[in-house]
């Protein structure tokens, strides 16, 4: 987690205030939400306005893309509000783009820089909008192709798509701030031994209470974090929280217990992941941490398999999450020593009313048994679900029947209200 203070997500400028000046380093770009901005070049004689931007336009992205100094200045004409996009947010997307797209971006950028310097040298006066390509604003969103479209809407992008992009960027910036200011909250959902009814562990599920949006669904912000490198600090944060929780639970109840932590493929495949694991989790807690990875990770090739094996050698338990929904190859399961199979909740939801799902669920659990793996089922909402899974010899259950994800204090209270019991299935 970064210790530096987070940069603001929204910035406001007064009329006449300079947003950036020619020659400044390009540390961030802006999406103009409200107001009007003039882009101009200081020539030897007088400033030349090259464009006026309005709500929905992007400015300042050129210097961010190629890490060169600003080639033009920007000034607020009226009270103006902008969403800040960091250079990291942009560079991550460019780095992951198709090489052809990167080439096109570079070519366009060079062309725009050449045109800008030509304007600088000739001191020609340009009326606002007369050469829209000479700006620090994004051509695809607000540039020359725009014609008579409203601000921020190109031929290729509908207003709603554009709104979605802005909202996503804003959400990403807010999430960045939430990580830096330590405002993610770990929740814990009990995992119960179906034979003894005892809690044997918890799954850590992250929660985010955004000051402006309220609670944001993990389904939404985890996928945004996965698209960017934000999943790495989120993942590290989750591992630290899991380690602390394992320690605290242990102290209170004095019996073995495990914490399952979801590890995204991007985090798992990031360079130095196993070293990071070793740095965060002290050796005495490794046996209490289960790494939940999805089965599609197994299809990521040799690197994923090697990392899995290293984690196993280090002593971590591995659980294959959402089993039955991905594209795993059974031959990997034959080769790899995976500790648990976690049957996806969609099977549990349907198994009582759908004969073929019933058969599949039973078969997957039997397979886990035969391979000596711990069989886990998630999404158990009713006693009927639980009772049927018990007849299938499912070892561990998880779902609203036993408890929804809850804050640490509630998880601890639930745990201490149970009798002491040792389970060999962790
Ligand atoms: P998941 O790992 O499959 O987590 C189980 C999801 O099912 C959780 O949703 C949980 O609240 C929900 N659930 C549990 N019991 C029941 C039930 O009985 N019925 C129903 N309908 N749902 C149930 P949640 O917390 O919204 O998390 C969604 C996904 O976000 C997780 O799916 C996981 O993929 C991801 N996620 C959450 N926390 C983290 C994290 O710390 N790191 C990573 N990488 N991913 C996370
Ligand atoms: Ca999971
Ligand atoms: Ca799951």
What does this structure look like?
The protein has 426 residues and is an alpha/beta fold. The protein has 16 helices and 17 strands. It has helices spanning 61-66, 87-96, 99-122, 139-142, 159-180, 218-227, 231-253, 265-268, 273-280, 283-286, 302-314, 330-335, 345-350, 355-370, 383-391, 408-416; strands at residues 10-13, 18-20, 28-34, 37-42, 47-53, 58-59, 73-76, 80-86, 184-193, 199-210, 214-216, 258-262, 289-294, 317-323, 340-343, 374-378, 396-398. The protein has an eight-stranded mixed barrel, surrounded by five helices. It has a four-stranded antiparallel sheet with strand order 1-8-3-6. It has a four-stranded antiparallel sheet with strand order 2-7-4-5. α7 packs parallel to α16 (408-416). The radius of gyration is 27 Å and the shape is elongated. Bound molecules: ligand C2E and calcium ion (2 copies). One calcium ion binds at residues 203, 262, 292, 321.
List keywords for this structure.
single chain, 426 residues, alpha/beta, four-stranded antiparallel sheet, 17 strands, 41% helix, disordered C terminus
Please state the structural category.
alpha/beta
Helix fraction?
A: 40-55%
Shape: elongated
How much of the sequence is in beta strands?
A: 15-25%
Largest sheet: 8 strands, mixed, barrel
Assembly classification:
single chain
The small molecules bound here are: ligand C2E, calcium ion
Put simply, the count of helices is 16
Mean pLDDT: 84
Give the strand order, joined by hyphens, for the main sheet: 9-10-12-13-14-15-16-17
> Can you count the beta strands?
17
Question: What is the CA-based Rg, rounded?
Answer: 27 Å
Amino-to-carboxy terminus distance: 29 Å
């Amino acid at each position: 987690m970064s210790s530096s203070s987070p940069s603001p997500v929204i910035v406001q400028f007064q009329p006449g205030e300079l947003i950036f000046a020619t020659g400044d380093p390009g540390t961030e770009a802006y999406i103009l939400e409200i107001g009007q901005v003039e882009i101009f070049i200081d020539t030897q004689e007088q400033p030349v306005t090259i464009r006026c931007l309005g709500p929905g336009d992007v400015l300042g992205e050129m210097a961010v893309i190629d890490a060169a100094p600003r080639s033009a200045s920007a000034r607020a004409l009226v009270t103006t509000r902008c969403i800040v996009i960091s250079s990291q947010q942009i560079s991550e997307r460019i780095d992951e783009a198709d090489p052809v797209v990167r080439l096109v971006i570079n070519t366009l950028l060079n062309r725009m820089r050449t045109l800008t310097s030509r304007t600088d040298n000739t001191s020609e006066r340009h009326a606002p909008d007369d050469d829209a390509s000479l700006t620090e604003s994004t051509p695809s969103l607000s540039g020359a192709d725009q014609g008579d479209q409203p601000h921020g809407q190109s031929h290729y992008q509908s207003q709603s798509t554009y709104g979605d992009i802005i909202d996503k960027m804003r959400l990403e910036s807010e999430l960045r701030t939430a990580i830096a200011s330590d405002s993610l909250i770990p929740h814990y959902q009990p995992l119960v031994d179906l034979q003894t009814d005892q809690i044997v562990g918890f799954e850590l599920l992250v929660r985010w209470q955004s000051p402006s949006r309220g609670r944001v669904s993990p389904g939404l912000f985890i996928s945004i974090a996965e698209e960017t490198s934000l999943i790495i600090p989120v993942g590290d944060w989750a591992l630290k929280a899991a380690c602390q929780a394992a320690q605290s639970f242990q102290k209170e109840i004095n019996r073995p217990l495990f914490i399952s932590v979801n590890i995204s493929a991007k985090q798992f495949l990031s360079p130095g992941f196993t070293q990071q694991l070793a740095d965060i989790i002290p050796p005495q807690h490794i046996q209490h941490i289960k790494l939940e990875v999805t089965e599609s990770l197994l299809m990521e090739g040799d690197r994923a398999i090697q990392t899995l094996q290293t984690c196993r050698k280090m002593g971590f338990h591995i659980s294959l999450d959402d089993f039955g929904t991905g594209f795993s190859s059974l031959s990997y399961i034959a080769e790899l020593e995976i500790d648990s199979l976690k049957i996806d909740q969609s099977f549990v939801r349907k198994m009582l009313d759908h004969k073929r799902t019933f058969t599949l669920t039973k078969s997957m659990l039997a397979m886990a048994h035969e391979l000596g793996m711990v069989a886990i089922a998630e999404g158990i909402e009713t006693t009927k679900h639980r009772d049927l899974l018990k007849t299938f010899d499912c070892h561990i259950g998880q779902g609203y029947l036993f408890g929804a994800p809850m804050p640490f204090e509630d998880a601890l209270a639930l745990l201490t209200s149970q009798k002491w019991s040792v389970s060999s299935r962790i």
